[in-house]
Known about the structure:
The protein is α+β, with helices and mostly antiparallel strands. The chain has two helices and five strands.
Amino acid sequence: MNYLSHAKLKATETDPVILAICSDCLLFLANGDLPPENTEEQDRQYLDRLAKHSKGFFNISPTCSGDPSFSWTPCETCGSRLGGDRHDANALIETIEGAD
């Protein structure tokens, strides 16, 4: 599998990639859980970001293997720029227009 590189992505409809996802996305994708401290408005904003940033990916599945690593890199499914653990998730990508 290849780690996703937004800058130089070439894809066919079924290319597998590994995404670096935040802990909120890990819990949501694995269990459907949203952070309990969130308001309804925060939940809606999170789900909107998730839909926007994960567009083009399908079958996103946390691997739940290995140790998470701290990173300031944005989450590749929701776009969060908060520093924190990043977990691996497998995904397939659809063809992305404009990829060289």
